[in-house]
C-alpha cells in the first residue's frame, strides 16, 4: 500500500465508494446531488483554480513539454469529438478522453515518483490543462450549445464572439486567467484572503469525487459500460502513448518526458463530471467512465511509470 500509485489512487477509489454508498443509502438523492454539484462548480472550484494559477510563473514553464502535452491532449480530444458526432455530448466525451486528474492525484503521485523537479514540470502541464484545455473545451461546448439552441442560422463570427463571452464568464475559466495575471504581480495573496480560498479549494476535489460516487449509485453502469471502458482505454492507455510519441518526435527525454507520460496516464479528472453535469449531457457515460478509469489506473499508471522509465 506504500507504493506511490496506490497511495495516490486508493483515496480516490475510496471516495467514489463512499459517495456510492451514500447515494444507495439515500443520504443524498440524485436530484439533490445536482444542486450540490452546482455549489461545487461555482463556489469550491474557482478558489482552487485561482490559487493553482497564482503559483505558476511563465518563466518557469518548460516550452517543449507543454507544447507536446497540449498536442497530445488536442489530438485525443479532436478524435473523440469528431468520432462522437461534433455535438455537445461529443464535446464532453472528448474532454473525458483527454483530461487528467492532475491536482488530486497527479501532484502527490509525481512528487512521490520524481520529487520537486517532477512537480515543477507537472505545474507547467497543469497550466496547459487549466488555461488552454478548459478554455478550449468550454468554447467548443458554448459553440455547439448555441448552435443546438439557435432556431436561426446565426453568423459564424457572431456565434464565436458570443461563445467566447460565455466562456469568459464560466467559473472554470475566469479564475484561471485572473490567477495567472495576478501571479505575475508578485504581490502574493494576503493571508487573511488566502486562508479561506485555501479551505474552499481544498474541499473541491474530495467533494467532486464523492459526487461521482453519488451519481454512480443512480446510474445503470451496465448500460454505459462499453462507453466507460472505451473512454478509459483512450484516457489511461492511448493518451499516454500519443503523448510519448509526440514527446519523442520533439526530442524530449528524461524527466520531462517521464512526467508527461505519467500525467497523461492519470485517470479522468472530476472536472469532466462537473462539465457533464453543468451542460446536462453525457452524465451517465462520464460518471461510469470516471469510476472505471480511476479503478483501472491502479494498474495502468503503474505500467506508465515502468514505461516512462524505459523511454
Spans of 5+ residues with little confidence (pLDDT < 50)? none
Query: In CATH's first tier, which class applies?
Result: Mainly Alpha
SSE series: HHHHHHHHHHHH
CATH-derived topology:
Na+/H+ antiporter like fold
Number of domains: 1
CATH architecture: Up-down Bundle
N- and C-termini, Cα separation: 26 Å
Report helical residue fraction.
over 70%
| Helix/strand/pairing category | mainly alpha
- According to DSSP, the number of beta strands is 0
Q: Describe the global form.
A: globular
Please give the oligomerization state of what you see: single chain
Biggest sheet character: none
Look at the structure and give the mean pLDDT: 84
Q: How large is the count of helical segments? A: 12
Estimate the strand proportion: under 5%
C-alpha Rg (nearest Å): 19 Å
Amino acid at each position: 500500500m506504500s507504493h506511490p500509485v496506490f497511495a495516490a489512487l486508493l483515496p480516490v477509489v475510496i471516495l467514489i465508494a463512499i459517495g456510492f454508498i451514500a447515494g444507495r443509502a439515500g443520504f443524498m438523492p440524485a436530484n439533490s446531488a445536482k444542486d450540490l454539484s452546482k455549489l461545487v462548480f461555482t463556489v469550491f472550484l474557482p478558489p482552487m483554480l485561482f490559487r493553482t494559477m497564482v503559483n505558476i510563473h511563465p518563466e518557469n514553464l518548460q516550452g517543449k513539454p507543454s507544447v507536446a502535452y497540449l498536442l497530445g491532449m488536442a489530438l485525443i480530444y479532436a478524435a473523440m469529438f469528431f468520432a462522437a458526432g461534433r455535438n455537445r455530448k461529443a464535446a464532453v466525451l472528448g474532454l473525458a478522453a483527454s483530461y487528467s486528474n492532475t491536482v488530486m492525484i497527479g501532484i502527490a503521485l509525481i512528487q512521490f515518483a520524481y520529487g520537486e523537479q517532477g512537480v515543477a514540470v507537472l505545474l507547467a502541464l497543469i497550466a496547459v490543462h487549466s488555461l488552454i484545455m478548459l478554455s478550449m473545451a468550454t468554447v467548443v461546448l458554448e459553440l455547439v450549445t448555441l448552435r443546438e439552441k439557435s432556431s436561426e442560422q446565426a453568423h459564424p463570427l457572431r456565434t464565436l464572439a458570443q461563445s467566447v463571452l460565455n466562456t469568459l464568464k464560466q467559473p472554470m475559466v475566469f479564475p484561471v486567467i485572473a490567477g495567472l495575471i495576478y501571479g505575475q504581480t508578485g504581490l502574493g495573496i494576503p493571508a487573511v484572503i488566502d486562508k479561506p480560498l485555501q479551505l474552499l479549494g481544498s474541499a473541491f476535489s474530495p467533494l467532486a469525487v464523492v459526487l461521482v460516487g453519488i451519481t454512480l449509485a443512480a446510474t445503470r453502469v451496465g448500460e454505459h459500460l462499453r462507453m466507460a471502458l472505451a473512454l478509459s482505454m483512450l484516457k489511461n492507455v492511448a493518451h499516454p502513448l500519443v503523448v510519448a510519441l509526440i514527446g519523442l518526435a520533439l526530442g524530449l527525454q528524461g524527466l520531462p518526458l517521464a512526467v508527461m507520460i505519467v500525467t497523461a496516464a492519470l485517470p479522468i479528472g472530476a472536472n469532466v463530471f462537473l462539465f457533464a453535469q453543468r451542460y446536462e449531457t453525457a452524465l451517465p457515460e462520464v460518471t461510469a467512465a470516471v469510476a472505471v478509469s480511476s479503478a483501472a489506473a491502479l494498474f495502468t499508471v503503474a505500467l506508465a511509470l515502468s514505461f516512462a522509465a524505459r523511454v
